[in-house]
Structures are given as structure tokens and as C-alpha cells.
């Protein structure tokens, strides 16, 4: 058993997470009381008797580690007691789905102090409140509490603060969470390798997507962190391209298009990988694509080198633009001085999005404090603001794109057009876009790259050859 498997063979640290959330409440001036959370409900598809695909509520999972639908939990903060409530056995359900987890089995599996049936939720909440003389607060999340759940015995039911406290607590991952993210990355790396290999015989983007998803499922990641992006040629210029149904043969030349951008990650026990790679369809990058790939890889590697506890994320993002500007100047796509191009935000025409985002149970994980009202176009779409804490996991995903919709407004602006060489630019439209993305664990003195998918030109071309 590897060290990673050994960590994941233990219980998900739900109790430690409950204590962390309680500490967050206390930091806001809320002392004692109870935390109450519910799992996602089983719901049927409209006009159909099939259930909606299940996705566990992240706040509930964070304090329970439980993937069962229709469950609940209560954490008595003062007594430090975590109770999980699971649905009682339904004879009708057993006929179709077999026996569910028993309370005794659930107690063995999950990091909780007690397991009861959901029919005992109200009695348990009442007992917690009465033990404190009915002078404590119940903390829950608005619109995530079932009708009939009663907080009358508490002096107050607070539905405003708990969600934000949990989201802030989730930013810093413990070793178990990092192991889950590493596992998701390991599986996803296999998927990316399979996708590149599948491209040798594929005729359509969807075949590459299918190879990635099948490999994830075969290796234990049945769910995807998000719908994969498989964009060939100019489709790579669309940041969140999602059709994945275009033929790989260029109808004008009757040969395979140059390259594919694949942004895909498997989800392992609710924790996400988010990886982007670009590879050639003909075994070797065309010169223009290779030139852009080299710039983006340099952007990524140099930005990753900057990462450690306390680094200002805005500074890393700005540095990525500096590297992009130098590279595009060298190619002749941009002209002028580096500082002037930076100050005029000309590089935003080619790198319009933020450098990355927090990663965890959500692909765009909580706690980033973005400011989408920022008037500065270089920073408007940053999903993370401020200094990175040790224990956070963040994506580093610079890109350079040749998207007419984004670039043409710059070309129509007399003050900005002079910085872009239109004749040189013409040679690069076919590149579409290049983005390279890894998942980075921030440590006190540096960082740990959780992503193992190949990304050097030599590795990628060897797989695609």
C-alpha cells in the first residue's frame, strides 16, 4: 500500500472540520450552540421517474464525509459531539436497491460520534438546546433545511453566517484533503494520456472526450469535476468551449487540424482535478503553435516558482502578463515597450482570464473573494484575491488565445491598434488557443505540484507521435 493509499484508507476527518468551523463561528463572536446541515435530497427528473444525478452538498460532506442522500448532521459545539442521521430502511427501496448502510456500519465508516435515523433529528436538536438551558443558537444554511425541522428550543436560529464560515474553512486543506486531490490528479493524468493516444485514430472531438471519461471511470473517478473541454484548432480560442463535436479533419485542406486543447479533470470522492493540456494531432506542433506553447509553458513554470505561503496572487498574475508580453514582442505580434504594453493592458487581448482559482470540492472552490466589478481589465476576472495561505490548493493556468471577438476591439481602438502587428498576427489565428494548467498545493516554504500529466513538448509530442 502506498502512502497515499494509506492516508485514504482512514476516515475522512469530519470531526476536525466541524471543530474548524466552530472556531470560525467563535471568531465572529458566536459562542456555543449547534451546527445543523442536511445532505442533498433525492429528486426525480421532471416528468420522469428517474432521479436527478446526485451531487452531495459540499457543506454537509465537509462535516460528515458522507455521500448518502437524504441524510443530516448535528454538531453540538460545546459537547464536541457530531451526530450523523441516515434515512431509515424502506422496504420498497430494498426491493430495488438492496439493503442500505446500517447505523452501526455508518458509525464504523464515518468520523462521527453517533449515528441515528433521520426520524430522530428534531428530538436530538431539542435535547442539545435543553442541555444549554434553551439559551443557545442553532446555525444552519438558508434554503437547505427541510420543512418540519424544528429549532424552537433554541433561543435563535441563525441562517446567515454558517455558509460563509464553512467556505472560508475549506480554503486550507488538511493532509487527507490533499491526498484526495492528489488521487484525483493521478487518475486524471491517466485520462489525459489516454486522450492523447486516442487522438491518433479519432476523427471527432467527442472520441477524445470519451477516452478521457472512460479512463477516469475505470480508475475510480466515476464523476467529472466539470464537463470536459475538447477543442481542436480554432475552437481552442473559446475559453469554455463545450460542444466537443467537431471533426478533426479540416475540410479545406483534408488533413488533420494542428492541435487539440483538452481541459478535463476527474472527481474523486467529491474532490476535483482541473488540468489543461494542448497536444498536436499530427505528432508534432506546427511552428506557430510551438512558439505560443513555449511562451505559455514559460508563463506557467515561472509563476509556479513564485508560489509559497503569503505570496500576493495579484502579483503572480501580473507577472504572467509580463512574461506573455516579452514572448509576444519577440514573435513580433506586439510592438512597443514592455512597460507601455503592460500599462495599456494590451496583453489582455491575448490573455483575458485570471491565472487560476482555488481547487477543492468545487472546481472553482470557495474563499477566493473575487471582485468582478474591478474596472482594471487585467484583474477583473481573477477568481482569487489576496495572499495565499499555506494549505490552499490553487490552479495555475496561463493561456494565450487568438480569439477575434476579444482581439478585434483592440484593433478598432486607435490608441491600442498601434501595439499589435496585424500582418504578423495573421499567421497565428489558426493556433486557436494554448492553455496549460496544473494544481498546486501551497506550503509554508514553497509549493507541491499535484499534477503529473505530461506537459513538456518532448513528452507531449512523443505520446502524440
Automatic annotation (TrEMBL):
Function field: Catalyzes the removal of a penultimate prolyl residue from the N-termini of peptides.
GO annotation terms (biological process): proteolysis
Residue ranges constituting the Aminopeptidase P N-terminal domain according to the UniProt record: 12-146
Keyword Protease: yes
This protein's UniProt keywords: Aminopeptidase, Hydrolase, Manganese, Metal-binding, Metalloprotease, Protease
Name of protein: Probable Xaa-Pro aminopeptidase PEPP
One MF term in the entry's GO annotations: metalloaminopeptidase activity
Swiss-Prot/TrEMBL cofactor(s): Mn(2+)
Catalyzed chemical reaction(s): Release of any N-terminal amino acid, including proline, that is linked to proline, even from a dipeptide or tripeptide
EC number(s) from the headed UniProt entry: 3.4.11.9
Superkingdom of source: Eukaryota
Family, as annotated: Belongs to the peptidase M24B family.
Amino acid at each position: 500500500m502506498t502512502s497515499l493509499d494509506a492516508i485514504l484508507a482512514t476516515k475522512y476527518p469530519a470531526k476536525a472540520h466541524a471543530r474548524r468551523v466552530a472556531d470560525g463561528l467563535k471568531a465572529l463572536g458566536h459562542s456555543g450552540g449547534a451546527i445543523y446541515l442536511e445532505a442533498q435530497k433525492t429528486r426525480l427528473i421532471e416528468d420522469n421517474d428517474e432521479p436527478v444525478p446526485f451531487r452531495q452538498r459540499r457543506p454537509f460532506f465537509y462535516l460528515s464525509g458522507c455521500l448518502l442522500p437524504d441524510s443530516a448532521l448535528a454538531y453540538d459545539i460545546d459537547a464536541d459531539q457530531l451526530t450523523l442521521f441516515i434515512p431509515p430502511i424502506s422496504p420498497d427501496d430494498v426491493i430495488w436497491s438492496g439493503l442500505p448502510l446500517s447505523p452501526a456500519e455508518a458509525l464504523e465508516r464515518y468520523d462521527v460520534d453517533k449515528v441515528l435515523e433521520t426520524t430522530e433529528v428534531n428530538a436530538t436538536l431539542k435535547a442539545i438546546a435543553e442541555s444549554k438551558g434553551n439559551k443557545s443558537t442553532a446555525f444552519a444554511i438558508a434554503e437547505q433545511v427541510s420543512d418540519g425541522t424544528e429549532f424552537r428550543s433554541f433561543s435563535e436560529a441563525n441562517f446567515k453566517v454558517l455558509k460563509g464560515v464553512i467556505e472560508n474553512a475549506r480554503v486550507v486543506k488538511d493532509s487527507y484533503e490533499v491526498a484526495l486531490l492528489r488521487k484525483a490528479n493521478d487518475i486524471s493524468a491517466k485520462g489525459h494520456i489516454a486522450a492523447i493516444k486516442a487522438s491518433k485514430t479519432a476523427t471527432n472531438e467527442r472520441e477524445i472526450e470519451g477516452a478521457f471519461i472512460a479512463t477516469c471511470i475505470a480508475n475510480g473517478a466515476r464523476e467529472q469535476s466539470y464537463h470536459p473541454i475538447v477543442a481542436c484548432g480554432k475552437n481552442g480560442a473559446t475559453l469554455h468551449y463545450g460542444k466537443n463535436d467537431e471533426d478533426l479533419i479540416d475540410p479545406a485542406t483534408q488533413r488533420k487540424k494542428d492541435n487539440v486543447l483538452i481541459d478535463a479533470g476527474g472527481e474523486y470522492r467529491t474532490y476535483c482535478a482541473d488540468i489543461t493540456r494542448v497536444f498536436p494531432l499530427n505528432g508534432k506542433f506546427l511552428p506557430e503553435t510551438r512558439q505560443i506553447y513555449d511562451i505559455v509553458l514559460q508563463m506557467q513554470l515561472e509563476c509556479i516558482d513564485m508560489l509559497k505561503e503569503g505570496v500576493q496572487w495579484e502579483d503572480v498574475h501580473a507577472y504572467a502578463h509580463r512574461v506573455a508580453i516579452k514572448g509576444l514582442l519577440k514573435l513580433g505580434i506586439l510592438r512597443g515597450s514592455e512597460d507601455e504594453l503592460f500599462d495599456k493592458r494590451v496583453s489582455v487581448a491575448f490573455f483575458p482570464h485570471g491565472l487560476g482559482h482555488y481547487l477543492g470540492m468545487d472546481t472553482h472552490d470557495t474563499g477566493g473573494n473575487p471582485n468582478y466589478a474591478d474596472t482594471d481589465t487585467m484583474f477583473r476576472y481573477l477568481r482569487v484575491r489576496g495572499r495565499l495561505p499555506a494549505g490552499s490548493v490553487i490552479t495555475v493556468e496561463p493561456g494565450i488565445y487568438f480569439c477575434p471577438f476579444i482581439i478585434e476591439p483592440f484593433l478598432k481602438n486607435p490608441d491600442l491598434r498601434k501595439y499589435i502587428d496585424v500582418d504578423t498576427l495573421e499567421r497565428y489565428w489558426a493556433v486557436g488557443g494554448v492553455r496549460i494548467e496544473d494544481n498546486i498545493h501551497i506550503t509554508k516554504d514553497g509549493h507541491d505540484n499535484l499534477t503529473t500529466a505530461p506537459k513538456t513538448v518532448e513528452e507531449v509530442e512523443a505520446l502524440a507521435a
